[in-house]
Amino acid sequence: MAEQNGAKSNVENVLEVRDLKKYFPIRKGLLRRVVGQVRAVDEVNFHIRQGETLSLVGESGCGKTTTARCILRAVTPTSGEIRFRLDNGQTVNVATLPKSELRPLRPQMQMIFQDPYSSLNPRMTIADIIAEPMLINGMGSKDRQDRVAELMQVVGLPTAFMTRYPHAFSGGQRQRVGIARALALNPRLIVADEPVSALDVSVQAQIVNLLLELQDRLGLSYLFVAHDLSVVKHVSDRVAVMYVGKIVEVAETAALFKTPKHPYTEALLSAVPKPDPRLRSQRIILEGEVADPAHPPSGCYFHPRCRYVADVCRSETPHLEEIEPGHWVRCHRSREIILEGIGDQEISGTGD
Q: Cβ contacts of residue 20 below 8 Å, gap of 6+?
């Protein structure tokens, strides 16, 4: 799978996900018998290199957040491997680690949550919120205080705010607190679950630029979960597109935006706002509903909504294959259809 993901070697990968699955049981009746499975994450494969940002994009309910939570073992995967490289060079399979062995791993894998209003404890001061991971991991009181002051400066908050409570802050300031908390234990990988989607557009740019600055300064690797492609284009090295629990396309950001190879990616790109009114494009309106992950269609999950559908799409399941160097697609017709992307000047949004 390392070769499929285009990795040069395991040493370069901070994270490597192989055939990850997460099925949730459907129970009915008085005895709560299992009558089916919701395939929230289904055979997901990708990798993240040191210092790289991989964005995971797709519609709501496609499995992005469940994938992120599996990686952090907030939920236990049904099967598959989550290979994480520790700072000592050793690699562990997070998917199968006993809970007793997860705690030493936590400092190296942290999460920034979507909603800065609900992810901070309203009864704790800003200093206590940022210091909590350090307290749990046994850091002394004086060291915690010094580290909190350092982190607040790193994320652009005055140290005078340390004794205040979350209600006194704006959404952008609260998200800065969340970022400081995630950095408290010097992690190697940060999972950012839609970290700017709940913020005003003007504040989004500030938070995205802060994340990029921290990445350069600290050598962080990001899994950036998002649905706003204008943000994704600005922040990502590579992009993975999900549809109904499966990765349907993975490529470097520029290649994916300019020359998409999967019809679903083309439809997503067609909805991206363009700043120049002279740049008119026809938005692709997908017919029908998103496939039910409890009862997915045969063949390609996207075929009921695809305008390029062929007979093979209805009967045979496509596999993720490399059609160009570093460009992986799950589509039977990816080599024969020409899809429309967007250029560098044809996108507006955060950071541009």
A: 41, 43, 44, 45, 67, 70, 77, 79, 80, 81, 82, 95
Q: Between 142 and 46, name the one with better pLDDT.
A: 46
What's the rounded Cα separation, in Å, for the pair 258 and 262? 12
User: What type of residue is 135?
Assistant: L
- Provide mean pLDDT across the span 329-344: 90
194-227, pLDDT tens digit by residue? Answer: 999 888 888 999 999 999 999 999 999 999 999 8
Give every CB contact of residue 278 below 8 A, 6+ residues apart in sequence.
Answer: none
- Does the reported pTM lie above 0.85? yes
Exposure of 156 in the CB half-sphere (CA atoms within 13 A) = 13
CA distance 287 to 306: 8
Any idea what the Cα angle at residue 300 is, between residues 294 and 301, rounded to 5°? 30
Q: Write out the H or E segment, with its range, that includes residue 84.
A: strand 79-85
**Contact predicate 80/18, CB 8 Å:** yes
List, in sequence order, the alpha helices (H) in the chain. 64-71, 99-102, 126-136, 141-154, 171-183, 201-218, 229-235, 253-258, 263-270, 311-315
Tokens describing residue 352: 């541009």
In order of 1, 172, 187, 221, 348, the CA distances from 208 in angstroms are: 31, 11, 18, 14, 15
